[in-house]
């Protein structure tokens, strides 16, 4: 089975934040892939990933970044798949800068945003989106 959720994180140091997300997706039986891609040092890589996500079978994208990184916004600008942003607490502002960068999107380019370090809720939201067209997953979410 191929992954239906793509998870991007801006830095390897932020991977531990995603443990709640991947554990929850595992619990729901949802296949996913995790990639580390920095939108500031390699924007072409992020653009290519987002632009080809649908043809690779992905249905929801989760993006986690800190320090005002605009990973989720960059991804949302390249796909019409649902994008969920996880602001990461980092730096002197404790994640507030990440939250603002993730939630303040222009009209027509939405990013659903969870709490700072809210990786588990990102997984739940992704599962709820997928369950709209998957009755078996909808039943697992009820239980």
Structural class: alpha/beta
Distance between the termini: 23 Å
Q: What's the number of extended β-strand segments?
A: 5
Mean of pLDDT? 94
Shape: globular
The ordered string of helix (H) and strand (E) elements is: EHEHEHEHEHH
CATH topology: Rossmann fold
What this model shows, in words?
- The chain has 6 helices and 5 strands; from the N terminus they run βαβαβαβαβαα.
- The protein has a 5-stranded parallel β-sheet, with helices on both faces.
Keywords:
38% helix; alpha/beta; 143 residues; globular
Chart the SSEs and their pairings.
Layout: E1 5-9, H1 19-28, E2 32-36, H2 43-51, E3 60-66, H3 71-76, E4 83-88, H4 96-103, E5 112-113, H5 119-131, H6 135-142
Parallel strand pairs: 1-2, 1-3, 3-4, 4-5
Helix pairs in contact: 1-5, 5-6
């Amino acid at each position: 089975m191929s992954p239906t959720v793509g998870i991007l994180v801006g830095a390897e140091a932020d991977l531990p934040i995603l443990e709640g997300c991947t554990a929850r997706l595992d619990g729901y039986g949802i296949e996913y892939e995790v990639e580390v891609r920095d939108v500031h040092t390699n924007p072409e890589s992020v653009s290519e990933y987002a632009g080809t996500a649908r043809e690779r079978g992905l249905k929801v994208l989760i993006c986690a970044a800190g320090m005002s990184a605009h990973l989720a916004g960059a991804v949302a600008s390249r796909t019409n798949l649902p994008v969920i942003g996880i602001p990461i607490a980092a730096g002197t502002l404790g994640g507030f800068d990440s939250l603002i960068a993730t939630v303040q999107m222009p009209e027509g380019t939405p990013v659903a945003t969870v709490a700072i370090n809210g990786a588990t809720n990102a997984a739940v939201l992704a599962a709820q989106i997928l369950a709209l067209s998957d009755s078996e997953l909808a039943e697992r979410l009820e239980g």
